[in-house]
Amino acid sequence: MNTWNIIIEDFNKADITKHESIFSLGNGAMGMRANFEEDYTGDTLQGSYIGGVYYPDKTRVGWWKNGYPEYFAKVLNAPNWIGLHIKINGELLDLNTCLEVKNFRRQLNMKEGWYERSFTAMLPNQQEIQVKVLRFLSLRYDELGALHYEITPLTTEATIEIESYLDSGIKNSDANWDEHFWNTLEISSEDNFATILAETKKTGFKVHTFMQNQLFIDNKALNISPKENKKENYIGLQYEVKVKQNQTFCIEKYGGYSRSNDCSTLSKSIALFDSLLEKQKEDWATIWEISDIVIEGDEKAQQGIRFNIFQLNQTYSGKYAHLNIGPKGFTGEKYGGSTYWDTEAYCLPFYMATKGAEVARNLLMYRYNQLDKAIENAEKLGFTGGAALYPMVTMNGEECHNEWEITFEEIHRNGAIAFAIYNYTRYTGDESYLKDYGIEVLIAIARFWAQRVSFSEEKQKYVILGVTGPNEYENNINNNFYTNYLASWCLRYAAEQVITLQKEGITKEETQQWLHIAQNIYFPYSEKYGVYLQQDGFLDKDLKPVSAIPAGERPLNQHWSWDRILRSPYIKQADTLQGFYFFEDHFTKEELQKHYEFYEPFTVHESSLSPCVHSVLASALGKTDEAYTLYLRTARLDLDDYNKEVHEGLHITSMAGTWLSIVEGFAGMRVKDGKLHFTPRLPKHWKNLSFKVIFQEEIKEIKL
Ligand code: BGC
User: Fold this and answer.
1) What pTM was estimated for this model as a whole?
2) Which of 214, 347, 619, 691 has the fewest Cβ atoms within 10 angstroms?
3) Which tens digit of pLDDT belongs to each residue from 581-595?
4) How far apart are the C-alpha atoms of 389 and 393, rounded to whole Å?
5) In this predicted model, what pLDDT tens digit does every residue of 343-364 receive, in sequence order?
């Protein structure tokens, strides 16, 4: 256990894809899985991604229904720039075919932002070599990454043939139609520099993938001209060197992606490995200066939170308003690198408190800039008059997810987007976003809710039918408490803001109607249990707690049929309790306790977004031991692979939830009347907890 590093010393072929996720690197503009530079014929998920470069993969569904989105936007697996084909005395280095691999070690240095891998391998030709590779993606230069790859022959002197290459013939493993998404336009090289210009099909993103190589023996630079190996979608620069036994050969490779033509200048002018690494350390030190959380007395918890903070910073730098935070960041293909409600519901507070109001505002502007598309999206579904339904999953504002129960039914995302505007204004004290932009978003969202409710003659209340709440283990339900509550809140909040800001162009009748609906929305309630019900009919289920499910059947989504899951009372993630989390001050402590104690026993936490919310609520209820167990589950979800899916990529957005479970959970931070308040409830064995937050433009240092 090392609180600034993730170290894994084990070469287990079954774990390669898992560790490729854990050791992923990113700099906010691009990112990559921890694939090996050299050939590897074993199981691997190759992945290198560029922020905002996506492809609209044509939807594939069994039976088409009106309103389905035409495509699912995918973050693209981008051309490979790290690749090295290495031969030692004519034998290809491939850890899958080596006779023996010893001392295999991976280290992610989170403090300084680099990743190192080392091993000793016996090749099939009985040549033993030692390899050490250090790699990082520069925070200073968005387009640049660097790697330093050392090979030491241990058996005899050796001829090392090395082909350093770029490859644009890559694919996405989740392509719906097995298509290639890139067209290669130009390939060129000059001395030790090469570049491939490729363009994405349909979306037309042009990207120069480049590399610059420099070779050394025992730290002395070699001056060898490479032989070019140009093929379709590929360029390799070949070198051959003779290396004595125990002498160290090294190739330094700089590369990355550039959207402009200046990549050659970039890699040549900055390419000095040590100084680039120094800058990397400085830039990470600046990030940690504000965002580190120090826990004394608990190394597991400490390492967990640092890993989460590190990954959040690798994913989103806040520099660009067109980028957002994909649930898997740059660590895998799943979730397509797109934007979900995760950003508003989970991530905003972290970036707001550690990067400041401007970055948080960028996240809000992202939705404002997509308002027209959200209105179009609602129109496609039959809504009118400027009503907006933001997409559940998007790259450019268009809906691009194609499961009807999510696309059409998980309308609660509209509420989270409105809540984020409120949350931002409450925390930063900056009213100008609301006034200049947010109000438009609120109006369009309120118009949606006002049309999406229906009036039940039977109940004499407004109901919301046919939805999916955050708990995706229920579909097409009526009166999901969370959705109804959010809708009611949105309508009221929007009406109040329109009135306060004296917004023109909205009639009094319209705001009165919003307020009328808000006051008359139906919430399913059980007198017997004294709780709001997750949805109509929840009590008809076979209400056995999660503890009654045999351990071998968990996670349910990997063992039960979907049908069985839907009929069960098991809750994938915080749903009713998500409402209690957002609107804690609308309920009494007793109400919170009743709801927590009612719902937690049915919650399987099979979404990464779940344990963090329960942890914050458990802390508020003084259930600190339970909060701590849930904290470890969120903080170490990927490191300890709780949900057995880390090979697909890391759960980036829930990492912001981990931060919440410390800052709002154990430290009990709340904003009330424009001031920060703390109610600390630390786990017993934590000696100290300290962190910083940027609050209303000041850095506050908290020591508990
Ligand atoms: C969760 C959603 C979430 C998505 C992306 C799903 O498993 O149920 O709430 O938006 O993952 O993180």
Assistant:
1) 0.97
2) 214
3) 999 999 999 999 999
4) 12
5) 999 999 999 999 999 999 999 9
